[in-house]
Amino acid sequence: MRKLVYVIAATLDGFIAAPDGSFDFFPLEPDVAPYLVADWPQTLPTFTHAQLGVASPPTGRFDTVLMGRATYEPGLTLGYTSPYDHLKQYVFSRSLTPASHPDVEIVSGDPTAFVRQLRARPGRDIWLCGGGQLAGQLLDEIDELVLKLNPVVAGSGIPLVDRGFAPHRLVLTSTRPFASGVVVLHYTRQTDSRA
Q: What is any one GO biological process for this UniProt entry (predicted)?
């Protein structure tokens, strides 16, 4: 079955963006960029591929990306209506109209039911790009968490997972520290608790 993998940058205190949704305080560190290009090229926006030397199209484990509306919007403000053109893109929103965003598929229904339908279809793994509210709704469906932990304390912002108190124990499967202070932590779900 296809896995849902949440690959995301976060602060030491668990935020993935500022309160206004911006994330420019997460620089792409020079020592981390080659690792992302080699190991996670599909998680880099298509418009950055030439600059970063990513093969076109990039190979990897994903063929699908899921985004919340707030994760999709920064690309729109820069004029990118298809930020991950190398993947099938789904944006979860009740306010965006499909006709206004033809380069992505707008999903207004229940994210959990949608992900379960996606898993049943043939294909490669599914990347959960963000954001915190969508991750909160899909927490029970996430198989792996790849956390690019940055040496930053933000104090407030958009949390890694935005939902009520519901502890989920994960198993650490690998760590990758970088001289810049970034540590990539790879976790898998401890037990399969899906209904």
A: riboflavin biosynthetic process
What pLDDT, in 10s, does the model give residues 51-70?
Answer: 999 998 899 999 999 999 99
Domain boundaries, the chain: 4-16+57-164
In the numeric block, the tokens 């920064």 are attached to 74
User: What would the CATH number be for the domain defined by 4-16+57-164?
Assistant: 3.40.430.10
Single pTM value for the model: 0.94
pLDDT of 112 over the 70 cut: yes
Structure tokens at 104: 């992505």
DSSP bridge pairs for 106: 91
Q: HSE, CB side, 13 Å, CA atoms: give it for residue 70.
A: 17
Asked whether the beta carbons of 33 and 147 are under 8 A apart, the reply is no
Please tell me the distance from the alpha carbon of residue 188 to that of residue 172, in angstroms, as a whole number.
7
> pLDDT, tens digit, for every residue of 140-152?
999 999 999 999 9
129: closest CA among 1, 6, 29? 6
